[in-house]
Amino acid sequence: MTLSDRREMPTVYEAAEDSRLLAETAVETVDDADFVLEVGTGSGHVAEYVAEETGARVVGSDINPEACRQARERGVPAVRGNLTDPFGADTFDWVLFNPPYLPTPPEREWDDPLEHALSGGEDGRRVIRPFLADVARVLAPGGGVLLLVSSLTDIEAVTDLAADAGLTSREVAEEAFPFERLVVLELLLDIRE
Questions:
Q1: Up-side HSE of residue 165: CA atoms within 13 Å toward CB?
Q2: Which of 119, 127, 130, 173 has the fewest CB atoms within 10 Å, counting from its CB?
Q3: Does this model's pTM top 0.70?
Q4: What strand order describes the sheet that includes 78-80?
Q5: What is the 3-state secondary structure (H, E, C) of the chain?
Q6: β-pair partners for 119
Q7: If we measure between CA atoms, which residue out of 83, 14, 87 comes closest to residue 44?
Q8: Per-residue buried b or exposed e for 124-146, using 16+ beta carbons within 10 Å of the residue's own CB
Q9: 88 φ, ψ to 5°?
């Protein structure tokens, strides 16, 4: 692949069925008094939609500087950073995340600017693990997470990771496709902790 070929390839994940499912679920959950973070905002589509439909204050974050630029062009304040690292404790009422979840064995990784936005590593949970390990830190009291996952990623394994991080899980939305089932998990701090 030549450098000019790489410049013509998209570098930011554009909204698709998974984005729509997360956005619609968030609109049913978030209200106008909430402060919301969309991690991995990509083009900013979900953050923009949630802000417009609910009146909530929504910010995005992404590790990709081009994604941050595109989100800002949509009017979404965007911070460049890895997952929840740039944010202080007890900040957000809701955190939304549509992570890269496609299981991709190392021998199947591809040389594409979108690989980081799509590939979830060998088991599909490479980015989900560190996200779940830190997300509770940025939740305000009573806050929660809406996490989109795929049956390809092993939903039960994700809920086990959430439980290990002190979060309870429940499925709040789903959509079935011939090759996978997309699910939005609502994750809340386990008050028994």
A1: 26
A2: 130
A3: yes
A4: 78-80, 57-62, 35-39, 92-97, 139-150, 181-189, 167-176
A5: CCHHHHHHCCCCCCCCHHHHHHHHHHHHHCCCCCEEEEECCCCCHHHHHHHHHHCCEEEEEECCHHHHHHHHHCCCCEEECCCCCCCCCCCEEEEEECCCCECCCHHHCCCCCCHHHHECCCCCCCCHHHHHHHHHHHEEEEEEEEEEEEHHHCHHHHHHHHHHCCEEEEEEEEEECCCCEEEEEEEEECCCC
A6: 102
A7: 14
A8: bbbbbbebbeebbebbeeebbbb
A9: -80, 165
Q: How far apart are CA 155 and CA 187, in angstroms?
A: 13
Instruction: Identify the CA nearest to 101 among candidates 172, 11, 10, 22.
Output: 22
- Phi, psi angle pair for 116, to nearest 5°: -65, -30
Distance of CA 125 to the CA centre of its chain: 12
Judge: domain 11-189, CATH 3.40.30.10: no
| Domain residue limits, the chain | 11-189
Rounded CA separation 19/149 (Å): 11
Distance of CA 126 to the CA centre of its chain: 13
| Residues 108-131: tens digit of each pLDDT | 555 555 566 566 567 778 899 999
